[in-house]
Please model this.
Amino acid sequence: MSRSAGDLITDILDAIERCTRYRGRFDDEDPEVVEMAFGAAIRYIGVIGEAANHLPPSITD
Model:
């Protein structure tokens, strides 16, 4: 089942919000927290890319 363009855009916006929130933890004093935040941000960057790849040309043009 394909997701609608609206669903994909929502996924992208949610992932951006999460990356922004996790970015705030990159300066944490605990190296494990930094590593987890960085890993989570990388995962959501992948979500952004995957969702963007499935957007129809009528949106990406």
User: Anything to note?
Assistant: Residues 5-55 form one domain.
